[in-house]
Design goal:
The protein is mainly α and 241 residues long. The chain has helices at residues 13-17, 25-34, 40-50, 53-62, 65-78, 81-87, 90-105, 111-123, 138-149, 159-173, 183-194, 201-219, 231-240.
Length: 241
């Protein structure tokens, strides 16, 4: 049996845990997602057995930046808050602080994934881990955009691109530098976002908020408009309106 297929049908989650598989962060998130619709206590019991502090510490130290960003995004968009909180441990904070620190001091291909992590920290409410960071330069932004999509249109309409632009939004919010993007890229993203539907209401709301932000950037000649509200507050205000 593949990891993540039918864990809730097993006699106990310990049996699943000791099934001889290397259970990874992404697989456990997916497994919990498969359990949607079950009683909360069933999911809670599974989580208590599998997601230990030691296991999460190992996962956050070993997982790639891209995996961490994507799992945080899936936790935010598809799971209840009590499940998100299980994953928001000291180990996540430690790894995130390391990535934020490296982002402020280096420029390279890894920046695009660090921006994604920052964006996802914003979505789940851990803004204190990057508050005050003023390290997004025009060069970092240009290199990250190029590395993110490799100038291939098929790479633009993906979760990682959404994660990236949420991170850019958060970094621009506290940046004191004027940043801009190429009009062709901005227009392409707007067209793609406007023409696609997302699987969850939260994800769709996030896309609509990004569209509204990009429209304001477009009106300013594709200079990235600096908002004062963190992404969570902006989404709440957007939902109310």
């Amino acid at each position: 049996m593949a990891v993540g297929c039918t864990p809730f049908r097993l006699s106990s989650s310990k049996e699943y845990w000791h099934s001889g598989k290397d259970v990874l962060l992404r697989q456990v998130e997916f497994t919990i997602r498969l359990g949607r619709g079950l009683e909360i206590n069933q999911i809670s019991n599974f989580i208590k057995e599998i997601i230990t502090e030691d296991w999460l510490s190992m996962q956050y130290s070993r997982s790639s930046r891209g995996t961490i960003a994507n799992v945080l995004f899936l936790l935010w968009s598809r799971h209840e808050r009590f499940i998100q909180d299980v994953f928001c441990t000291k180990a996540l904070r430690d790894r995130s602080r390391l990535e934020v620190r490296n982002f402020t001091s280096t420029c390279g291909a890894h920046n695009k994934k660090q921006i994604r992590i920052i964006g996802m920290l914003g979505l789940i409410g851990l803004t204190d881990l990057y508050e005050g960071v003023n390290a997004l330069t025009q060069n970092k932004l240009d290199v990250s955009i190029s590395m993110l999509t490799h100038n291939n249109i098929e790479n633009y309409n993906t979760d990682k691109v959404t994660e990236f632009w949420v991170g850019v939004y958060e970094l621009v919010r506290q940046n004191n530098q004027d940043l801009s993007i190429d009009s062709e890229i901005g227009t392409l993203l707007l067209d793609l976002w406007r023409s696609s539907e997302r699987e969850t209401i939260k994800h769709q709301l996030l896309i609509e908020m990004l569209i509204a932000w990009f429209e304001r950037c477009q009106s300013s000649g594709w200079k990235l408009v600096r908002d004062t509200k963190p992404i969570q507050d902006q989404l709440l205000a957007f939902e109310i309106n």
